[in-house]
Specification:
With 245 residues, the chain is an alpha/beta fold. The protein has helices spanning 28-36, 92-105, 130-144, 158-170, 206-214, 229-240; strands at 6-12, 17-19, 22-25, 44-49, 54-62, 67-75, 83-88, 109-113, 151-155, 174-178, 184-185, 194-198, 218-221. The two termini are 16 Å apart.
Amino acid sequence: MHEDLAVNLILLYSSDFISTHRVRLHDRRLLHLQQVHRAQVGERFRVGLLNGLIGQGTLTHLDQDSAELDVTLDQPPPSALPLRLILALPRPKMLKRCIETIATLGVKELWLINSYRVDKSYWSTPLLQPDRMHEHLLLGLEQAGDTRLPTVEIRKRFKPFVEDELPALAHNTRALVAHPYHAAPCPAPLAEPTTLAIGPEGGFIPYEVEKLTQAGLQSIHLGPRILRVETAIPALLSRLFPLPT
């Protein structure tokens, strides 16, 4: 990539292509070019095809109704984290930030689960609708310069998930649950398949920790400080995985 390319990625869809190497944009990406980048014809941008290659695009046309770019897609997206993240559903304001964060950090598999300390009202948030979830995942990808969309699974019943599904998900992975009490220190960073469960504000209750342990997860902690979920996610991921090269 050239240093003069815009920082954030413009995500492209197959439907944007009007010829083999030219795309036409009409939606929020057009507004972003107009209002944020104040783009000029001839300017180059980082682009990437959703779930495909990344590259660069040169702006060839811009008006109030559309933008056109000539694009070359010739590089793979950043490597994904070998992580299955299981997250007790946060409150809606925090959920939005968490969704974008996990996409930015390279998590490709997210499971949102219930917990005793998850308020029932959280499950009615519009953020759980597929289109809203998709929107915030895309924002995270654009920030990171990534194209591979994470998958999101939702499980509203804790016990059936932990007893019936989690043991198989955790099998043959480094299986961990973040828990601030009676837990081992966070292990050394390793680039190996990992299953990580993070609880709600206040953490999992003892019964839930016991069930997670029975499913094969080991309790770990980051030290004496109690972290918000939105802080715990990047802190844990930075400790558990080596820095990308």
